[in-house]
Amino acid sequence: MSRLPEASPEHPLYHFDITHAPDAGGHFGRFGGRFAAETLMQPLKEIEEAFYAAWADPEFHRERLDLLKNYVGRATPLYHAERLTKLTGGAQIYLKREDLNHTGAHKINNTIGQGLLARRMGKKRVIAETGAGQHGVATATVAAMFGMQCDIYMGREDMARQMPNVLRMRLLGANVIPVDSGTATLKDAVNEALRNWVASCENTFYIFGTAAGPHPYPLLVRQFHTVIGQEARAQILEQAGRLPDVAVACVGGGSNAMGLLHPFRDDADVRLVAVEAAGHGLNSGKHAASLAAGKAGILHGNLTFLLEDDEGQVLPTHSISAGLDYPGVGPELALMLEEGRLELEATTDDDALAALQQLTRCEGIIPALESSHALAAGCRIAAGMRPDQIMIINLSGRGDKDMDNVFKHLGWLEDAR
Amino acid sequence: MSARLGQVFERCRAQGRSALVGYLTAGDPNPAESRELLLALAAHCDIIEIGMPFSDPMADGPVIEAASVRALAAGTHINDVFELTRAVREANPDIGIVLMGYANVPYAMGFDLFSERAAAVGADGVLIVDIPPEEGAICDDAFRAHGLDRILLLSPTSPDERIRLACAEGSGFIYYVSLTGITGADMGEVADIRSSVAHIKTMTDLPICVGFGIKTPEQASAVASFADGVVVGSHFVNQIAGDGDVHEAAGALAASAAAMRAVMGGEQV
User: Which of A232, A347, B112, B199 could cysteine-pair with A376, CB 3.0–4.6 Å?
Assistant: First the structure.
């Protein structure tokens, strides 16, 4: 990897090594790959080539890191949550504040990167799928900044759950296209975005939102989000003088999880914990825990763990959090689980709601429902650890978008009438 | 490899015409009625593509997606797909039969068992939309071991190196996608399709069938003038999509297929 640029003096937090790279076909062990329709094979290859060329170009990183600093607001803080730590009664809990990014979640790290790639490739239009709406908002934001046309595919069910984000996307100039097929959630939005892209790939870049999909997307999304873990690593060394004992992130497709966890992957003493959505409980049939309860299958261009029936039909999933409501998971997380490098946890809807309220009350930070899954599991683990131990939890987004949904579940909207 | 697909194209060539390749989704609108519909279509086709319903048909337009939804809602299982295939084969000993669908269904069964069962009920080939040649390692040996052709797709976005790859790895025939889009969209320009097919023919002796978006006998006739086969899918699925009587739907489907076959060129049989 000697071709890669050195860490820039302006941005000493970051480095550009591509560790644990997939093979030439995009396989992470037996997972991943490029299971795509013929029409998309060449466009995907062009994106792969454009990515490797850009990644080796110091000018690309200069522009990307400049935007991440001056537009997104990076580096995000690593906050020692002392009151939460005291309440939990165990390990010292640090929160990686991705909620403080412009647009309110980690998603923009990736849309800045892919948006720059789209511009380098001369594409005038971008499309994206979105679940919670955070990736859609982050894509619409970048499209506005770059002056690109933008269409966002979103399940009608998710639009109802996340109306503020739908309106934000429209305000940003994006066209939000409702998807009614299947379960009208994230997986169906991906199907519809792929259908559009097959017909429009000549002038359109598909900004994929999670660390899944056909090669090279799992690699792209991971690389654009590793700023999270690279910062956290340097910050904890500065603040605590050593690496954490545990790093925790929620997992839907796996973008914020790969972003935080990947830079700690070769630190053998750091436990890596992925937290899935247990919905009404892992035995209820209403959850989205594809790593815990799925089996190997092929969907959306990659081989990974899927929630499916005995005959390979993809099952409807459930989570209170639209951003975790997805039947698959990034192929690299599937590999890390099989290799024993990843610990699995799952948080129910109710526990996520409780964690959201707890953090809000004791730290004055309203987390997204997605991140609340990581918080709930993190606090459970931290309670069993010693006070001289350290945990980093990725606070992947802020909860503003979830307020209607949360108030509805808490019954507060009725009370207010 | 199956000898039968080769014989189908030889027979058509001898008659100076193109092959009519018809598609229906197995189990649409339910397994029992699907049997009558498939038999009605097969009687007028040289090759029939039997779609294996899937929950997430990413490369299909609304018409074929809806067919998958109807079939699954009616409780169509992979066993039904095999039994329907067997029924088509028993009624049509010489027809070509291709099972078409998405990777996760055969992957869930295991490609060995899937191939064994597909061959046992009389399928000649398999077309999996989301397994390009590069990912063939998961299925090619199983298909080969059970004498099944691996039908591969090419599209207007396929550069020469991909054309060479598909022609080397594929067998039976090459399925040329007439447009950059999903099934059921508007067919591409005939002149473009003609020159693409001619270009592919310089690189392979495999028959070339053209599909996606062919809805009228006029379009079918234009494509039949230069392609070895003409694939009609969404148009046939549309014939049966209403709530009407299944016998009437079967009659309409047969008439529609006969009209398509009549414009394939050569002497009519």
Answer: A347
